[in-house]
Amino acid sequence: MLLKKLKGLVSIRNGKLQVEDLAAVRNLMDEVVYEAVFAEDEETKKDLLTLITEIAKAADAVPSSIQGLYEEMGREYRGFTVPAINIRGLTYDVSKAIFRKAMEKNVGAFIFEIARSEIGYTKQRPLEYAAVVLAAALKEGFRGPVFIQGDHFQLVRKNYMSDPAAETAYVSGLIKEAIEAEFYNIDIDSSTLVDLERPTIQEQQRPNFEKTAELASIIRNSQPAGIAISVGGEIGEIGGKNSTPEELRAYLDGFRETFKSTDKGLSKLSVQTGTSHGGVVLPDGTLAKVKIDFETLKRLSEIARKEYSLSGAVQHGASTLPEEAFDMFPKTGTSEVHLATGFQNIIFDSKHLPAEFRAEMYSFIKQEYAKDRKEGQTEEQFIYSTRKKAFGPTKKRWWDLPARVKEPLMKELEGKFALLFEKLKVSNTADIVKNTVKPVATKKTIKPEYLG
Question: What is the pLDDT of residue 164?
């Protein structure tokens, strides 16, 4: 039994969890996190996941807000773009790979994130996602701030138009759940509410900035003492028309007027410059080439930084761009770039993933998600757009893949992380993170019987 193995390795002293034998705890972490994730009883699962987060914090892997770094970038851009990485499957193994490469390259500025939609189809509630990431940090010996982010905490337009109060309540509840799980970075996406039929840009953006201000107030009222959560906003629905300086100013001016608080406002702003989530898949299953408007991205970043003291503009939907595009993000002053589907593609398309396992996953989605197939989609387009939904219901099958499969697969991903860290110029950012971010380890209650 897991808890028997932990007894004597961790303890409570003066009301605080202590790690008595860090090496032994690390050796057990693969087993600990597996038992926690797949515990059948929800209360037991919550207790075990919380225990993992407390052990990680005691070992100096601390969930943190990136606010301090972004305030510094708002004063003076330091020439790097922070990667925000969404992990949909094999989360523990992928997180370990990220930490290994980050430690090798002395990277401090990197974010783990999960979107509202991903929480659903990958079946990773915030506490599980945070605990698994922190377990990976502990296992690999990473020490310092760990940035965990709620990505696209989005108001779904059709839901909002049907019942604004219910949709707002859902996102508010998700925000509170995420903060309780120690997500200290949250991106609010109410750009779905922009009304282009209104006569002025200010009025078009009004539903967006008013709802962002409302949700930002909820974040500020829910954050733990001593922690200023980094809050992001968004002005352009990803996949729509490119954002403009006029929209940026209308949104940020409106937010300032609406968010009547002495608390910190936004730290960054997501914009649209030509990408789409997951890329555009052609009938043969290949991805269409995307032409990103880097001049717009540069201009919007400059305005956000110089006129509003934000860290800069944020680029979504970038993981499927060609490698040479990533050099441009630091050059254009982009403060953060979101990366998801490209890593998923590596996992599914890797020669190291057994063909029979891949076929099993594709058979599953064709059977379970047949209703999601859009009219006119080829088989290749349907599989590409839907295979992300295989991660959640078959999570245990992925976690149970043997080491002979997972190890070379993670090596392949490590190569991609290394390339991105280099191109985004975040190597050797550990010191600036250390100087601008002061981790605050909040305390969670651990049941005494769990520690003997």
Answer: 97
